[in-house]
Amino acid sequence: MTRQDTPLKPSEFSPQTTTAHIEDPASQRPHWLIPATVGLLLVGVIVFFVLPAWVSNRDLPPPLTAPPAEVSTAAVSTDPADAAQAEASPTPSNERSPFAEAQLQKQRRAAQEALQAVLTVQESLLERAVEQWALEPYQAAISQAAIGDAAYREQRFDDATRAYGTANQALIDLEASIPSRVAGAQARLLDSVETGDEPAAQQALELLERLTDNDQRLAGWRARVAAIATVTAALNGAEKAAINNDFQRAIDEVTEALSADSLHRRAAERLVAYQQSLVDNQFRQAMSRGYLALENNRFEEAAQLFRRATTLKPTSSEPEAALVELRSARTDATLRTLRAEGIALEAQEQWQQAVERYQAALAIDKSLVFAQQGVTRAQPRAVLHQAVEAILADTSRWVDKRALQSAQALFAEAQAISSPGPVLAGQTRALADALSYALTEVDITVTSDGLTDVTLLRVKRLGALTATTATVRPGKYTALGIRSGYRDVRIDIEVTPGGPNVVDVRCTDTIEEAL
Question: Domain for residue 233, yes or no?
């Protein structure tokens, strides 16, 4: 309110008291006293009541004059006739008492203050384009202000104050609703961004730009709205790729969407889902290929695939169960292989190798009947085979009776086998031939000088001789000659049927000559 809005206050007026005296009042009163008093009273009325009202009516803010049905953004009327109309009153000021006029001025000032409050809030709302986001509530508030204008013109200032107050409260409520409207617009914008509704997002963004002033979030909102087309295209591409189980491509597409809008919740959720789908798909492939390898006894490949599945899903129990099955299958396959190899080696009369296969099976499971029986079958044959091979390899030793007896015992054992295979049959024939040869008597002629003591080792002592004949079995023999004062001599000779079989044994090197 300006200084002109403030009504003029009359100075205190106190009539002068006079001292009572005896003179006749009529004889003491000047003749101009009565007209002067009336004039002073009239001036007082004009100064204290008429003039303030006239000044107030001319200087107050123009009231809102538009009727409710014709409210516009201009809430204030500027028609000079309104001020003249407000000057008029059903009860002329010159008919009111000073107290009544003062009360009326007080009511007028209250109405003016209420109107000023309306205009202040209205200006703030118009700066935020209120008509574009709350037209109806705003028009209703301005209609109340117009009712206040009408009451003000009729000098029903209390009614005007109430109307202005109602309008002001409505406008304040509108202003107070801005934060919630901002929140609602932000929610609509974010929802539109998530669903890819670009027109709705743009509309919400425009509203936020009107409602907010220098909000730091506006730049982020604008960027997200601008990225809607890119994000939508990428998400659609990801969905198509996922339908074709190409989850890696789907991940790449969603990653592109997040590069355009890193806050896009749906894209982030899709990324997690596609990554999980990729892991699930790789897991299923690893398990499937692992079982296929297992069925074809490619155990190492199956193990690698099952371990990969474990890496993909550490908490899954399927790979561990598959590995248990793999170990069991590998063991079964190993046992089957060992059994088959053992039987095959027995058929080939490779008895020692067969024994090794059965013993390997027993190392896995001591209760295996086939392995126990296999060892029982193959072990004696392996021993026999090795013994025959060993004795046939050194028939020269058969000149010794114990070696010959061992060969004869092995021959008898070999002949006792009811169903000998080709190998044992061959060994038996070889033993028979060797024994026949070894048992053939052959004459050997030993000559000497008659001075040397001759001994045919492992046969008998022949003594000093010039010539003699001994009957021996074929083989390698050693003739030993001993003579006092002479160095001993040893001569090896192999006696064979039909051979010359002659050996000369004599000591000719004296010990003195040797020294």
Answer: no
